[in-house]
Amino acid sequence: MSALTRNKVPSAPAGGTAPAAVRRRSRRARVTAIAFALPALALLGALVGYPILFSVGRSLFDASGDRFVGLDNYQEMFTDPASLKAVRNTAIWVVAAPAVLTGVGLVLAVLTEKIRWATAFKLLIFMPMAVSFLAAGITFRLVYDQDPQRGVMNAVAVAVHDAFNDSSAYPGARPRGTDVMKESGNGGFQAVAQAEPGKDVTLGLVGLPPASLPQQARPAAPAQVSDDAVTGVVYLDFVPGGGGTPGAVDPQERGLPQMAVELTKGGEVVATTTTGDDGSFRFPDAGDGPYGVRLPPKNFAEPYTGIDWLGPTLVTPAIIGAYLWIWTGFSMVLIGAGLSSLPRETLEAARMDGASEWQIFRRITVPLLAPVLGVVFVTLVINVMKVFDLVYIIAPGPVQEEANVLALQMWLVSFGGGNNQGLGSAIGVVLLLLVLPVMALNIRRFRRSSR
After folding, report:
1. Which residue ranges of the chain lie beneath pLDDT 70?
2. Domain with residues 72-156+309-450, CATH architecture
3. Where are the domains of the chain?
């Protein structure tokens, strides 16, 4: 027998036994896979599939669920001002938050590669992800508090403002009556009597707690009268414990130091000065009068209290800022993982060719990271469409409507007082329809990257 005959592979038995065995093994594998997947599919159907189908059906009925109304709930959704505002705010979230987060995460991921303590820095940035949205919302409700003594943001804003602008020394001070001083407009006060050189001007104020006076305040005393100067005193016309003569300087009353005083003639300011520690002021070399004496508004303006972060104008950007604080770590870590897989030889070749770091970042790093950036961006878009708890916790009740989003509107309409689950289901269905295309795009990206 030749070698060719000895090495010849035996042909398959008649009747296709081998293909039948392969088919049996394939069917057995499919049955096994389905058997293992059935519990998960049943759970998925109970927790996801059934609620979706029920919500679609419920959205076609009225608030009581007894009368079929067709698409009336959807029509009401797109005509109701509150729902339209929720759609607008959701659009702002979708446009702003994912783009900013992706950009910030990219910058931080690139920078952390160039610092020594990169791991510790990444841990610090990622740590807010471990904080629940409830705790983060409560924290940022305090951070944005209007009172600078409690709100960190306004404490910083007040500190910066006061560093460049002098704050008012005597907010809330006012004359005891209109017989000595009257309002001069914009919160200032004008002496009723005309001033003349050689005559003293006495200006008493009330409305200030004695404990709030500057430490350097001394017992009130008028400046020394002279024939060529307009002199006077500005003091707190109040004696602790009672007593004293209104409109007259008593020994127990203290002057108001550093009070701005203006000398006017014909309605024009001709001289300015400030009071001493005893409240006295003096305009030397004053010519023939009469003059007017005025305390300008800057003495009495209320102190700067910061920015109304949770007001109708800034509440949505403020809440987005809290969201950025939480999710920046997520974006940075994912982009950092993609950055670590980039071919280093390409980057080194670009540096050897004389490319700057900015050129490498713009022309090499960003294009190579485009798939990762796309996944991060799409994931964040899906996430911001569902944002609920941050808005509900941070936004105060009076302005909650200004910060409203679709997920919160769905809850408010269904359970938060509206008791209209038909309209709430319609909002939920619309929200699902908005999320589905983005989810499909993300799934396509995952499949493409796996191939």
Report:
1. 1-18, 449-451
2. Orthogonal Bundle (1.10)
3. 72-156+309-450, 174-299
